[in-house]
Amino acid sequence: MNKLFKQLFRFGIVGGIAFLIDFGIFALLTHLGMHYLIAQIISFSISLAFNYVASIKWVFDAKKQTPKEIIIFVSLSVVGLGINELLLFIGIDKLHFHELIVKLFATAVVMVFNFVTRKLIIEKK
Prior knowledge:
mainly alpha; 0% strand; elongated
């Protein structure tokens, strides 16, 4: 199997599970009355922890991460969270779409961002 195809397939599985964690927690917290931006930080952080471990162990060829690589990963994840928060704010507060619809869109955008940045940084060519 082509290495890139295999990575994309595995990334899709890991991303799917991370999405279910993120979306499920987000939906639950917003349903319970938590503000969507706070709910997003919590759900994103929990799914990020899962995604990081699974990406390192199963998706990319990265056996041991250096402190520098971990800092870069966390920094890029914070950027991803910022993109997510911005898209949620625009979609919900400015365009008045339902929060779960905006969440789906924002997650798709950040998923592409995550794959590209992790591919370039986590995996050494």
